[in-house]
Design brief:
5 helices; about 180 residues; alpha+beta; Aminopeptidase; 9-stranded mixed sheet
Length: about 180
């Protein structure tokens, strides 16, 4: 995979540009995150998406000194949409980070998530020694994205899903850098 890290905290691959969130992304975030399939595949997106949630997400994403770095999966380098999904790294203690991502349903099964996760791992923008990630056990595609990026299965757990209003079984993965 051809990868280049460029100024402005962007990570570029052959088809994607992982770039910082912009205020102009708000409308597409609201549309995509408002889809039940997207919300139920994440821990923190509620369904239905309440008014102002997309705006609050953008404000959190652009906040200086945030504990989480968030990028938009921008497909414009390959003639795709400017917003295909979101990927993030949440800082943890002991030089560790947690990867999370979602892709809009219109772009599922195109390898977008795999390319984004692999690029983030290679770039390692937080310089961490270990990355963790979780996938809901009813979402084996996300688990496959993680294993394709070199993550190893660590164990079973469960996490709360806001959209489902329930604890959901998860698989936990680790990637030593």
């Amino acid at each position: 995979m051809m990868l280049e890290k460029i100024a402005g905290a962007e990570i570029v691959t052959e088809r994607l540009r992982l770039r910082p969130v912009r205020k102009s992304d708000t409308g597409l975030f609201a549309m995509y995150a408002g889809d039940r399939r997207v919300a139920e595949a994440t821990q923190g997106i509620p369904h239905p998406l309440p008014p102002g949630a997309a705006e609050a997400f953008v404000a959190r994403a652009v906040a200086v000194g945030a504990e989480e770095d968030i990028w938009v999966m921008d497909g414009s380098p390959a003639g795709l949409a400017e917003v295909l999904g979101v990927i993030s790294l949440k800082k943890m203690d002991r030089n560790q980070s947690e990867v999370a991502f979602w892709v809009a349903p219109a772009f599922w099964n195109l390898g977008i998530a795999s390319e984004a996760v692999q690029a983030l791992v290679v770039a390692n923008p937080q310089g961490c020694k270990t990355m963790f990630a979780e996938a809901f056990q009813d979402n084996p595609r996300s688990a496959r994205v993680l294993t394709n990026a070199g993550f190893q299965y660590l164990g079973d757990a469960e996490s709360f899903s806001v959209a489902r209003n329930a604890r959901v079984p998860t698989w936990t993965y680790v990637r030593k850098m």
